[in-house]
Amino acid sequence: MGQGGASSVDRGGDITRAAVIGCGTVGASWAALFMAHGIAVAATDPGPEAEKKLRAFVAGAQAQLDALGLDGRGALHFVATIEQAVDGAEIVQENAPEDETLKRRLLADLDRLAAPGVLVASSTSALVRSRIVADCVTPERVIVGHPFNPPHLVPLVEIVAGDGATATRACAFYRGLGRRPVVLRREMPGHIANRLASALYREAVNLVAEDVASVADIDAALCNGPGLRWALMGPHMTYHLGGGEGGIEHYLAHLGPSQVRRWASLGDPTLTEEVRARIVAGIAEESGGRSIAELEARRDRGLIDILKARTMVAPNGVAPNRAAPEGAAPESGASAPRRSA
Question: How confident is the model at residue 9, as a pLDDT?
């Protein structure tokens, strides 16, 4: 099916119908976000009791979104096939397991089935776009639209597109959902955020392997230290402020060499059975007997509180409940009303 024809994104009209393909945690979270902006969702997933699990997740997520002022109630239809889900959809969000062969086949099917001009977005967290769109007839309309979990709360969406115009269309849609899109200039495995997270986690594992500190203290060092700043500004802006009046230029000139020395000392751990056992035991102690569900609920309550309270350091957004400048993303990423895409 060709790329020609004008979609609602091209026309600047509101998206009213979305297809969600795959309804695990990420897909269900996308569905809840779409619905909270008044978008009708047609969802499909071949897993056992997928519809029951989806509806239960959406019910819980709606209460969280209500707390952020997103109280839309788009319809939810669970259907048996991707053909039914894509029929009439103005945006398609794919959330299948991270299997390149599976995604490559599925995206080719979605590209064939979706109406001309409709964007097909993959939530892949690590696969590169060029490989998963290889079998698509019109790969130019198939993008990576990777969220951070859970996407109904966390604003980030990483965009990988084949051209600037398609990236612009995708950004317009996700900004209309109050998200904060970032665009990769070239594809990389793991995109941006997961590469940063992997670099950090490698050293967190190394600190366990080297018996430098407990799992709980390593986690505490992050969330009670740099993690607080990282909710407001990224690493480059952090060190810009660390350079005093001279900013990042002064920091790199005078303290950059100390960073290089620390880089040289970073570890390259192996996940041996012993290291895995230490991490598992440490997490059991840190969790204090709380279940995964209890920990997730605490996480989500904390995320909502942060989104309501934070003020971004860099002027790339505005305070919640104020109109954002043209082209800017709301700084909280979760409390802004949906605009025309």
Answer: 43
